[in-house]
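User: I'm putting together notes for a lab meeting next week and I want to include a structural view of one of the chains we've been expressing. I don't have a solved structure, so I'd like a prediction I can at least talk through. The sequence is below, exactly as it appears in our construct file.
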Amino acid sequence: MAGLKVPLTSAKASAYFRTVPRTFLSKWRVAIVFCAGILISGLNHAVADGKDSSGSKQDPKFVAKKILNKYEDNLFRLRPKYQGHFAIRMWRITSDSRYLYPALFHYLVLKEQFKRQVSHLDSPEYIRNFSEQMLAEKFKTAKGKIRRRILEQKQHQEFVFHKKLLELSYYIHCLGMSSGDLLPQFEQAKEFLSRVNFEEVLLDSQIVRMYTPQAVNYVYYLKFLGLIDLEEKFIALFREIFRPEADIKLDKIEYENMLYGLTHFIIAGSGYYQNYVSPEKYGWILEYLNKHIDEILARSKPDVVAEVGLCFKLCGQKNHRVVALSQKKTVEAFDPKQGLIPPKKGKASLNKSEHRNAVAYLLLTDFDRLYPGPNLKDSPELEYLFEGTGDDNSD
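Assistant: Thanks for the context. Below is the predicted structure for the 395-residue chain, given as structure tokens.
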């Protein structure tokens, strides 16, 4: 981040913010956490960033470092959604406390959205208007228009509200914040979601075909929250719809959906990089990806390629040939001038390119352990925000 690369560790930053009175934090905590992020945006590598020219541009670790530096230097310029996505994934392969502040900022934004949604659960009019507004504003791409048409034809417009509430409930629970002051709203949300007929929507063949990766996510959110387990039924329907021998008949969108669906079974099954998964359980996916890797590399965008390689790493097979081939293809997509992997056309937006580069980094960097969480409420570095006075009484 130009002009803001300060050699300030997260420990020093958290010590500084412990001096802020708790009453002030309660009123202005979103702004304060954001400013905290600005101050530590250089993070621990700030002094050396941009000056290390060692390593080959074809070396996965070299490219991984460049991507990490790019996003850490600009982390607090990203929208909260992308800050959280990046920081939480970095935390899950490092457990490094410096990623807690952007994760906390993301949570505070999610919390306000969650409370607003829960406050309108008894208003069919609000749910209908919210769904219609989202359908009009967020489904404008070619793929989005197809999904919108399916939801409207099936009279499933309100699924847009239901899946948003499901997402928020899952994220908040994953961050360890579904208890305490949010417990009444969280239980209210779960009770509401338990009455939604998710099976009717998610086991619709058109939804599986055109809403594939998101539908996989929702299946695992529901299972994780203990609402309903549709995993086996969904997988059976997915395998019936996307038969390997019919790949040649899939258009560009369907082929991408199919691959994203395959990778998301494993990624979602891992709790999104919180735990390794069984290669036996997902052997049918690994077998397909290995057998068809040449076609996958030729037909897929960098996001998909990176997730394909990650599937093998999450199954404890980091030395598999698919990992090496996926890394090679990912490195080739890296633009040293921009310091990241850009879209195929045009200049990269840091926000829109965050997912692509986050999964690329996870593929290219080496990790041997995954960490569940982060549980923000139980993090010692953030204790002063939730239980203390806001004062730093330590030496």
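A couple of points you could mention at the meeting. The longest helix spans residues 100-118. The CA atoms of residues 309 and 326 lie 5 Å apart.

User: Perfect, that's what I needed.
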